[in-house]
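Researcher: Quick one. two chains, 820 residues in total.
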Amino acid sequence: MNYPFWEVPFIGSGWVIGMIAIFHVMISQFAVGGGLWLPIAERKALREGSKDWMDQIKRHSRFFLIVTGVFGTVSGVGIWFAIGLTHPEATSTLIHNFVFGWAIEWVFFLVELTTIAVYYYTWDRIPEKLHLTVGWVYAVSSVCTLVIINGILTFMLTPGNTWLGVAGTGQEASKFWNAFFNPTYWPSLLMRTLVCITLAGVWALITGSLIDNDKQPDFKASYLRWTTRWLVPSFVLMPLGLVWFLHRVPESQRALLSLGMSTIGAGTFSQVTRLVLIMVITSATIVIITYYLAYKNPQDFTLAHATAILMLALMATGTGEMSREMLRKPYVIGRHMYSNGTRVSDVANRNQNGYLQHSLWLNQQVSPHFAQGEAMYRGQCGSCHTLTGYRSLNKLLAGRDRESVGSVLTMLHEYKPDTTYRKFMPPLTGTPEEINALRDYLYAQANPATSHTTAPPTLKSQK
Amino acid sequence: MFDSIYKWLDERLSLGELTAFARKKTIPLHGQSFWYYWGGISLFLFLIQIFTGILLLVYYRPGAEAFESVRQITYVMHFGWLIRSAHSWCANLFIFSILVHMFSVYFMKAYRRPREIGWFTGIALLFLAALFGFSGYLLPMDELSYFATKVGLQIPSMLPFMGHFTTNILRGGPDVSDFTVQRFFALHVVILPLLFLPLLGLHLWLVQKHGNAVPPSEEAKPLAERKTVPFFPNFFQKDLAMWLITLNVLALLASIFPWDLGKQADPLASTPDGIHPEWYFMAPFHMLKVLGNLLPGATGEVAGILLFTIGLALWVVIPLYDGESRTGTRGRNAHYFGLFAVTALIITTALGYWGIR
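Model:
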């Protein structure tokens, strides 16, 4: 409530994070997996004394440096901007709890960025063995960044009972390690490591596809076949990781997966099931077509094929990350903070004293009633919904009269245990007056003919 | 065991000849080989349409109950929403991939002798696919499909002399009604497939007969320098891989962006804002609109139809104009005409969407 609202029309602020994050994850996981790929490939080239391999690894390392060092870092900073603006409360909780974790991670970032630059610029300038060691330093430090960020990401889904026991007492940071090694930490680390290894292979197919088949047919085949093998660990272990992960997720979140099996609605929550299925289908497709295109027909493998595989990987990564985010609903930090930034412990207080009690961000240009409704919408609906675009409230509320909009809000406010909405939407908090203001605001938005200046009919108490 | 089954079949069906043919058939390999996949992708999407269409047919009821049956498919039947979404998305992807296929054939000059008939049948298939799309769009009878069909029928009604006659036959009366649904349904599931399948057979047979054309840049090279890969198993595997990718894209679209079902159509209601035909009809629709605004009354309509018909006719008969390879001026003119057509289509479509924004 102490933060201004960031309203992004049409796509919604959540998608701003989503778009940056999916792009970032594709690259940052390449940074980790590719970090292992480089020294392992270099060691192979040194052992075999192959000049072809060495030249190719040099080319690949330049590509790697540009993709990860430029696009990876810039998009990483972009995520910070986006989450800070969209979920200030959640970001604040994370910073208060994990500032030490991030400090460690930034140390590794610095080591990463330094060593990859050294690695690239010292080809043929320092002894081979030393160069390989630089590669290994990069690999270890980039794996460490994954080891750390994984603790923070999984914390948001499953903070664990120990941390939840101290949440809100000011002693949260004392349970840092419990929060860090939370219930989904290890299965998630396994899955992310597998994805990193796969992405190392997938991105290396891009540079591999550019090898001239007329000049180096045998080398192209051996390079592509070796790189294709990087997809095997995922193929074998990923199902195991997924089952382990889902086993560690609380029953209530797992139930969300069965909720969405046979329901329809663009942008509704039932999509999480579909997203998981798409992720599985797409991942299987990647393995199959990589086998046929790159392993069986390496000579005909072109940049278009490699790009197609990369796009499929983007689909798999995107749906995977999106379903992980959605599985967290109705929370942004499991059982601690709802997806609209309301702490579970604050609900009673806000219902008693008002959601807007400390809000500085009321619109002064319109009637106070309208301004209240608008602030309620921005604060409590806006992190997941938009008015006219993604999960459009105008569309979802179309055809309802004022009373009917009010009953939806009452249902969300009362938050009875048997309501389906409870499975994926946070409770609506606030006083009856505030909720009525929200009702009138949403009704006026869905029915533009009704101007906000017209007085609403007699307000029925929502309690 | 498999061996003996194969032998039994081979003796009766000569399977060996088929595989020998597939092995002998080669696909040219060059910088533009990527475009060869699009015919196969179109075929694959058509197969999906048959499959999902048959499933929808199980529950769809044309006529007065059309909307109710689609509502049941979407909200009541298990995975009905998925099949319906897949069918609708696939229809759009199908037309898109045929368009890509057509333009790639055009710019690779694959319509030249002896492939003229392949070009003609291809255009006819595109035309039928558009009719498939148009007739299928009405079937749910929700608000959007009803009014879009009403608007879309303005295009044939502008045809000189026979416009009103044709439109009335299609509509089954002066207005879009349950009769129209019945007629469009018959068109969609009986008449169009009856026309489409034999034409498709001829089209595919011609591709096998003449093989893949190579673009002029490749043709200029001596035979010894041109590269090919065997169709089976090399290109076939890649074709399957592309089909699999296509299937993934379709699965993503159909499941994440399920096709909407609006309110039941109410003929008495006023046309809602922003009603427009599907994207693949946007270009002709917008051209007619612009010309209708420029020229007063019937003159504009006739001029629009005339211009569009001439353009289309020129497009269809291009193999007769640019039929021989290495005829410099004609080849170049055809190329410019192609560029003009693509640009005109993109611009008018964009303007059309801009206008209803």
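The longest strand of chain B covers residues 26-29.
Researcher: Thanks, that's what I needed.
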